[in-house]
Write a structure and sequence with these properties.
The complex is a heterodimer.
Chain A lengths: L10 E4 L25 E4 L4 E2 L4 H21 L2 E3 L22 H4 L5 E10 L2 E10 L4 E11 L3 H17 L8 E6 L6 E6 L6 E2 L7 E6 L5 E6 L6 E6 L5 E4 L5 E6 L5 E6 L6 E6 L4 E4 L7 E6 L5 E6 L6 E6 L5 E3 L7 E6 L5 E8 L2 E8 L6 E2 L7 E6 L5 E6 L6 E6 L6 E2 L7 E6 L7 H8 L2
Parallel strand pairs in A: 2-4, 2-5, 3-5
Antiparallel strand pairs in A: 1-7, 5-6, 6-7, 8-9, 8-31, 9-10, 11-12, 12-13, 13-14, 15-16, 16-17, 17-18, 19-20, 20-21, 21-22, 23-24, 24-25, 25-26, 27-28, 28-29, 29-30
Chain B lengths: L1 H21 L2 H16 L15 H6 L1 H25 L2 E2 L9 H16 L5 E6 L6 H21 L7 E7 L10 H7 L1 E6 L1
Helix pairs in contact in B: 1-4, 2-4, 4-5
The chains are: A mainly beta, B alpha+beta.
Chain lengths: 450, 193
């Protein structure tokens, strides 16, 4: 696994802002709760550079492409074609006094990101600004000084600033996705970044390895593996690889970490029935959570950790249920269809995504708590399974066989902008989106003092 | 992985054995005797009789191959029974761990063999077709294996002779996405321990 590196930001200077921020940020730009989101037209011209050589030119192109790609990935923007721009982008001085906004509104841009960078002996100095072209003013301005090798981290950070300003939410640029791939001939767990880049193999068990689950601090991944022949539960530290094993008789499967705690739920069958248990992060049994005849599998926690959704066959077919952990009160929430499994509770807490089978095909649905308003997000495109939410709740990652072999796809929480995340050998299944992994990020944005 | 290598090895040993058995015991006995003759370099001589002045080693050795062959016969019979035990899968309906009459008949046949060879232990694997989701199928596979195990125990076989393992939909025998493949994959499969 590629260790997640914190960006070595030596300087992050808040440059200036012209539009006085009446509230903490401009949340009114993008209402992430709206299913009828209008994509904001944004221009991201190639950044300027004072380093007038090949390295500088290449890097500014690379940096602006990277930023453009990350913003596009969110699904919030309509990326404007650079060929249509009136101004020669490389000559833009990225501060408001030098920008002629009518040139940008004329091409349809409502937002503009301009940047300028310099390279000196491997040290990168990059200035990035977000402008509102209609109000003709700057919304965010940052200057980062770091190693040239950390360019991607800086771009992720500034993308995060933009999304935070526009939505009030931190986004997912510091998150990763764990998934299962069969490329080596065995199912093993892999990890990639939020956008499918930098894939690395996390397990080398040479045995069926499935059902990855991130702890809410991102430091642990639990999974099921047949390393010793039986489906046992492994709890592995992503840093030092320290490990605990739950290897009871029967199945030890479908782990799900309790938010904010070093505890997880998992299905064990050593008692003779398949029930969900609450375990410590080291695999010790705390208590049995379900106690009903039949299969109880696939727990997923509400963000406050008070409720658990899971799949049970207690009614005869697999359906999704929600249980209050303290009171034990259980409520069935899926009634349509005879096969509803793989629940994933949204980070905002208001919805549960799941895969439901209808007409012989699995598709992704979301449903409100109490079984309100089920919405089908995928259709007519193979089998779509294993939904998992991005940490900000704006996107859902899932697996799909629409291209033949199973691949990892991503879409917005409303089912729009469906696209493949990556293509590697073998089949990819069971994606799980991590929480935000870069806990230092907020201290940087506070320097801005918006 | 190790397990599958053992399965392959076991098959390599067992299939030729079966071919022998199938080509009938008598033939193999004759073949054995002829091989003995070859070894003693008495090719033109008639089969050794008690009255014949055959060299001592041959007289002494002659009954031996017959004895071994009888043991081999029993061994081959057992191998064949074990083959049947392992080759014949118990099939299930979609999203079900219930034993249909046909599945019960297969289990009863297996019970006869298991009664005869009381020293063998079995791992019952539970499998599913690809149509469900992996998580629920892993649970369903276990219920299928347990369901087969319970039926055999109810027929009077010792519970200690059976262990179960679920592979869910992780080890399909056929990877086609059609009813024919699905039927074959919804199975309990027996493996000698």
């Amino acid at each position: 696994m590629v260790a997640f590196r914190y960006v070595a930001v030596l300087v992050a200077v808040y440059l200036s802002f012209i539009i006085p921020a009446s509230s903490l940020a401009g949340y009114d730009y993008i209402d992430i709760n709206s299913p009828f989101l209008r994509k904001i037209p944004i221009a991201v011209p190639v950044f300027g550079t004072d380093t007038a050589n090949e390295t500088g030119m290449q890097l500014s192109k690379k940096a602006s492409d990277m930023l453009s790609g990350m913003l596009d990935f969110t699904g919030y923007f309509k990326m404007l074609d650079r060929d249509s721009f009136i101004e020669d982008s490389a000559k833009i001085k990225p501060d408001a006094s030098n920008i002629y906004f009518p040139n940008w509104t004329a091409v349809g841009a409502e937002l503009l990101v301009a940047g300028n960078l310099q390279v000196k002996g491997g040290v990168l100095e990059i200035e990035l600004r977000l402008f509102d072209t209609i109000k003709a003013g700057q919304l965010i301005g940052k200057k980062y000084t770091t190693s040239v090798n950390d360019l991607r981290d800086v771009i992720k950070r500034f993308s995060g600033e933009i999304i935070y300003y526009l939505t009030g939410n931190r986004g997912f640029f510091d998150s990763q996705i764990a998934f299962v791939s069969s490329g080596t001939g065995n199912k093993e767990i892999y990890i990639c970044e939020f956008d499918g880049s930098n894939t690395s193999q996390f397990t080398r068990n040479k045995a069926i390895t499935i059902f990855p689950a991130w702890s809410s601090d991102g430091h642990w991944i639990a999974f099921t593996s047949y390393i010793k022949g039986n489906p046992d539960l492994y709890i592995v530290n992503t840093g030092d690889r320290s490990m605990s094993v739950v290897a009871k008789k029967g199945i030890n499967i479908t782990p799900a970490w309790v938010p904010g705690k070093f505890e997880l739920a998992a299905t064990l069958s050593y008692s003779g029935d398949q029930d969900i248990y609450l375990l410590t992060g080291t695999g010790k049994e705390i208590k049995k959570l379900t106690n009903e005849r039949g299969s109880d599998v696939s727990p997923t926690w509400s963000p406050d950790g008070k409720k658990m959704a899971f799949v049970s066959s207690r009614s005869g077919t697999p359906q999704v249920y929600v249980q209050d952990v303290d009171t034990g009160h259980v409520e069935r929430i899926t009634f349509y269809g005879r096969y509803n499994t793989q629940p994933s509770w949204s980070p905002k807490g208001d919805k549960i995504a799941y895969s439901g089978m209808n007409g012989g095909r699995h598709n992704i649905y979301t449903i409100g708590l109490g079984g309100k308003d089920p919405v089908q997000l995928t259709g007519n495109a193979g089998d779509n399974e294993s939904p998992s939410w991005s940490p900000d709740g704006s996107l859902i990652v899932f697996s799909s066989t629409r291209e033949g072999p199973s691949r990892i796809f991503v879409m917005t929480a409303f089912g729009t902008d469906q696209r493949r995340l990556l293509a590697i050998s073998g089949e990819q299944t069971s994606p799980k989106w991590s929480p935000g992994l870069n806990n230092k990020q907020p201290s940087i944005s506070n320097l801005g003092g918006l | 992985m190790k397990k599958s290598i053992w399965v392959v090895l076991a098959l390599l040993l067992v299939i030729p054995g079966l071919l022998f058995t199938a080509s009938c015991g008598k033939k193999s006995l004759t073949a054995d005797i002829e091989t003995m003759k070859d070894k003693t370099k008495e090719a033109p001589a008639p089969p050794p009789r008690a009255s014949a002045p055959a060299p001592a080693p041959v007289v002494q050795k002659a009954p031996e191959p017959l004895k071994i062959s009888e043991e081999e016969m029993r061994a081959r019979e057992k191998t064949s029974a074990m083959q049947a035990l392992m080759n014949e899968d118990v099939y299930f309906d979609y999203d079900s761990a219930a034993l249909a009459p046909a599945a019960q008949e297969i289990l009863k046949k297996k019970a006869v063999a298991l009664n005869k060879y009381s020293n063998i232990s079995i791992t019952i694997e539970g499998h599913c077709d690809e149509r469900g989701t992996n998580e629920y199928n892993l649970a369903l596979g276990e219920r299928r294996a347990e369901s087969a195990k319970k039926f055999l125990i109810d027929l009077g076989l010792a519970a200690s002779r059976f262990t179960t393992i679920s592979y869910g939909e992780e080890k399909p025998v056929g990877t086609s996405s059609n009813e024919e493949a699905w039927v074959k994959n919804r199975r309990a499969h027996f493996v000698l321990k």
